[in-house]
Amino acid sequence: MQVFKFLIIFIFSLSALSFETKTVLIDGKVLKVEVAQTEEEHERGLMGRKSLANGHGMLFIFREERILSFWMKNTLIPLSIGFFDSQKKLINIHDMEPASPMDLSPKTYESTAEAKYAIEVPKGWFKKNKIKPGAVFKINSGPKPKRSHQRERTEPQGQYKEQ
């Protein structure tokens, strides 16, 4: 019972953390992502979520390339994860199942080469969208700031660019 109370308190304490959101484009497919850049955000990830809408996910950004390893501890929904190198090129994909709360050593899912980014999405999203290793993603830069002393022009908002 004590373990259960701890898990409930732990999961609710995580809800205070909010993530920046961005839009990414992978092989013509748009994906709305929450961005995890800090160690605290990396540790939290999608833990405790009861659902994840199709077309939504989480982008993990690391300081440098390395072999990345993820697990599904305290994650309630099945996910797919894509690992990307520093050029944002897809290295490999894993489908992942939630770990049992009683499993003290959940299965890990690793990149097959050094990676700088990982994207978690609802299980099967990469396959459904025919996204395979070699695909490259771009991050939406967001709307351009308006210039105060120039006439406003009508331009497409949120151009995709390399970051």
List descriptors.
single chain, 163 residues, mainly beta, Jelly Rolls, eight-stranded mixed beta sheet, two-stranded antiparallel sheet, 3 helices, 10 strands, 14% helix, 36% strand, disordered N terminus, disordered C terminus
Q: What name goes with the CATH superfamily?
A: Protein of unknown function DUF192
Calculate the terminal CA-CA distance, rounded to whole Å: 47 Å
Low-confidence stretches: 3-16, 144-162
DSSP summary: helix tally = 3
CATH top-level class: Mainly Beta
> From the alpha-carbon coordinates, what is the Rg to the nearest angstrom?
18 Å
Q: What is the domain total for the residues? A: 1
CATH architecture: Sandwich
Question: Can you count the beta strands?
Answer: 10
Mean pLDDT: 82
Percent helix range: 10-25%
Structural class: mainly beta
Give a description of the structure.
The chain is built from three helices and ten strands, in the order H-E-E-H-E-E-E-E-E-E-H-E-E. By secondary structure, it is mainly beta. The chain has a single domain (18-141), classed as Sandwich (Jelly Rolls), CATH 2.60.120.1140. The protein is globular, with a radius of gyration of 18 Å.
Topology record:
Layout: H1 2-14, E1 20-26, E2 29-36, H2 39-44, E3 56-66, E4 69-71, E5 79-84, E6 90-96, E7 108-110, E8 115-122, H3 125-128, E9 137-140, E10 160-161
Parallel strand pairs: 2-3
Antiparallel strand pairs: 1-2, 1-9, 3-8, 4-7, 5-6, 5-8, 9-10
